[in-house]
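Continuing the series of single-chain predictions for the mutant panel. This is the parent chain; the variants come on the following pages.
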Amino acid sequence: MGKAVEEKERVVVRFAGDSGDGMQLAGNRFSAATALIGNDLVTLPDFPAEIRAPAGSLAGVSAFQIHFASRDILTPGGQPNVLVAMNPAALKVNLAELEGGGIVLVNEDGFTDPNLRKANYESNPLDDGTLDDYQVFRVPMTSMTVRATEEIDGITSRDAARSKNLFALGLVSWMYSRPTDVTAKWVEVMEANLAAFKAGYNFGETAELLQVHYEVKPAPAEPGTYRGVNGTTAAALGLISASVRSGLPLFLASYPITPASELLHELSRHKKFGVRAVQSEDEIAAANMALGASFGGHLGVSVTSGPGMDLKAETIGLAVALELPLLVIDVQRAGPSTGMPTKTEAADLLMAMHGRHGESPLPIVAAASPAQCFDAALEAVRLAITYRTPVILLSDTFLANSSEPWRVPDAAELPEIDPG
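Parent structure:
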C-alpha cells in the first residue's frame, strides 16, 4: 500500500549541522531540484562568523534555509516547518525558531555523549521530553550511510560518514516529492555520495517511520527562460550587460572583503566579455583604480562592504568633484567597525547618503531581492554614465548569497546606455 500524499501551499525547510557537515551543499542541491519543479523559492544560507569553530560546538553551526511555494514569495520564511539537525548543537541553536508541531529530522548517530556536552545539554533531548511538542523522526543517518557504501572500493567508514548530508538530502527529497535525476546526475561521479543519496530516498520510501510525504504544486510564472541566481551572480550579469549596452569595457577593482569578494570572483570568470578584474592592495587603491579607469574611458566599478566604504569616501568625493561616472557596490554586513562578516544587516543607508565631507550628493540604488540585483546594477550604471556621477549600489549579505528564480531578459530589449 502506497504512503499518503498531502498537498502543501508553502514549506520552509532548514538544514543544520556542523560547519563541516555539508549543509550548504545539501541545501543548494535541494534548491536546484525545487527550481526544476517550478516552485517559487527563496533561500537563506547562514554561515558561522568564526573562521573555524570547534566541531560540534554551538558557534560552529552552519545552516541553509529554503522557502518554496506554489505561489509568489518574497522572503526565505520565518519559522521553519522542518528542521534537519545533524548533531545536538544544530538542534539547540535552531529549535527555538521551529514552528510548534513542526517536523524534526535528527541524525540519531550524532547525539553521542561528547557531542551533547559540547552543545551544553545535560541530558539527551531525544529522550528527556524536550521535543514532545514536535514531530520527531530519529534516523541513524551516519551508520546507514556507511552501510550503503560498504561495497564501494577504497572508501573507509570515516570517508563514507562524510556523505551523510547526501543521505539527509535524499530523505528530504522523498518527503517533498523532489525529482532525483538532477541530483543523481550531479553526484554520479562521486559514487559514495550517490549511494548515500539513494539510500536516504529509499529509506523514506520504504521505512514505516514516515507515513506521509508532501507535494507543492508549481507556482504560476510568466513564460520565458528561467535560471536560479543569487544576488552576486545577478549583479555580475547586470554589470556585464551594462558594459555591453554602453560600449564601455568593464573594469572592477576590489580588495577582498566578505561578503563582497564573491562578486570579484564571479566577474573574473568573464574575460570573454572584456571584463578586467583586479585585486588591489587596499580599499583606497581599489577606489582610485576604478576612478582612474573611468577617466580612461572604462566602466569603473569597485565593490566592498561597510568597513571598505569608510575608506573609499575621499575618492567618491573626488568623483563628485570631477563629474566622473563611478559605481561603488556596498554589500552590507552586520555591525559597526569590522562587524560580523557572515551576518546580514542593511544599515549603511545613512552612511551612503551622508558619509562624505563637503557637499557631495550622489544617487543611491538599493536592490530588493536577489534577482533584482540585475536590474539594480543596470540602473546604477545608467545613472552613473548618463549624469556623470558616482553612484552607490546597496546590496547585503542576504541578497548576495540567497537564490531565487530569475527570468532571463531578452538582451535586445535591455535599455541602451549612451556614454555621450
